[in-house]
């Protein structure tokens, strides 16, 4: 069974095993006058690409975005993407793992989850500048490495994600406390899905993990994204299948087995029902 290529933060950026890994690079220097092209892969770290000036395309979990000025991409560990960034683009590429930055307090942790749930945000110039100034500070701290710089970077990341949520908020975002609770529990549900989807596919299993009733979990998903919990689970299964079909040469039977399906015929019927393609046809049409 072939696995999806996984990229890691370069060892040179590792401060120590206890502090985790962190990197921030200037995009102009990274490009060095040439286009950048990365084929489908995933990371084991958070990925933030902030472009003051940019052109190209970025496909995140098979959703294609046209890169533009004053835009920010945030990816969670495990998401599959491919990036084509044109020469002349300017900004910062920041990467960090969950050892370096993963708030233990509930509120900051929920902010990170909420921010990283929005993979792409195109901002007004004034709003973007405010966020970009925070990344500039992070870059300066990381370059100078003065006493306490890691604490400064972590504190600035707290502010960055608060501001990102503020600036990227859509007109239909929910603001009531009850809706805020539902959004937080939705993020918990999605995080559990990313970890357990190969072995657990029933709504009752996730409701038990979250200490909720079936009714409560379905109410949460319907209130936040307008879908029953089972539909969200099925979408995650299909997403995982697409990742392996397009990012690896693995045979369908091996992908089915990895996703927890002993009966390949059932898996093929399930995939066709939700995509209108057989797995092989999907691979041939979209790779």
Structure, described:
The chain is of the alpha+beta class and 287 residues long. It folds into 2 domains: 6-168, Regulatory protein AraC (Jelly Rolls, Sandwich); 177-286, Homeodomain-like (Arc Repressor Mutant, subunit A), CATH 1.10.10. Helix content is 49%, strand content 21%. The protein is built from 11 helices and 11 strands. It has helices spanning 27-31, 106-116, 125-144, 149-168, 177-196, 203-209, 214-225, 229-247, 252-258, 264-275, 279-286, and strands at residues 6-7, 14-16, 20-26, 36-43, 46-53, 56-60, 63-67, 71-75, 80-85, 90-96, 120-122. Strands 2-3-10-5-8-11 form a 6-stranded antiparallel β-sheet. The protein has a 5-stranded mixed β-sheet with strand order 1-4-9-6-7. β6 and β7 form a beta hairpin. α3 (125-144) packs antiparallel against α4. The longest helix is centred in the middle third of the chain and has 20 residues, at 125-144. The radius of gyration is 20 Å and the shape is globular. Residues 11-15 and 171-178 have low confidence and may be disordered.
């Amino acid at each position: 069974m072939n696995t999806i290529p996984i990229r890691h933060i370069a060892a040179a950026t590792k401060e120590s095993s206890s502090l985790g890994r962190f990197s921030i690079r200037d995009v102009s220097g990274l490009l060095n006058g040439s286009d950048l092209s990365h084929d489908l892969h995933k990371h084991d770290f958070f990925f933030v690409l902030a472009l003051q000036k940019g052109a190209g395309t970025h496909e995140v979990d098979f959703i294609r975005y046209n890169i533009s000025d004053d835009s920010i991409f945030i990816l969670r560990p495990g998401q599959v993407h491919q990036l084509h960034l044109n020469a002349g683009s300017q900004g910062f590429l920041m990467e960090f793992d969950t050892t370096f930055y993963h708030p233990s307090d509930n509120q900051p942790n929920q902010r990170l989850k909420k921010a990283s749930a929005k993979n792409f945000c195109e901002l007004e110039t004034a709003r973007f500048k405010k966020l970009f100034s925070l990344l500039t500070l992070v870059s300066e701290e990381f370059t100078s490495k003065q006493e306490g710089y890691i604490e400064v970077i972590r504190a600035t990341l707290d502010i960055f994600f608060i501001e990102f949520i503020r600036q990227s908020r859509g007109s239909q975002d929910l603001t009531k406390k009850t809706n805020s609770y539902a959004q937080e529990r939705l993020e918990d549900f999605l995080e559990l899905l990313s970890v357990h989807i190969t072995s657990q596919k029933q709504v009752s299993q996730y409701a038990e993990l979250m200490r909720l009733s079936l009714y409560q979990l379905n109410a949460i998903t319907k209130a936040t994204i307008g879908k029953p919990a089972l539909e969200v689970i099925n979408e995650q299964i299909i997403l995982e299948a697409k990742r392996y079909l397009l990012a690896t040469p693995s045979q369908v039977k091996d992908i089915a087995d990895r996703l927890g399906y002993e009966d390949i015929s059932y898996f093929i019927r399930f995939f066709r029902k939700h995509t209108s393609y057989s797995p092989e046809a999907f691979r041939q049409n979209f790779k």
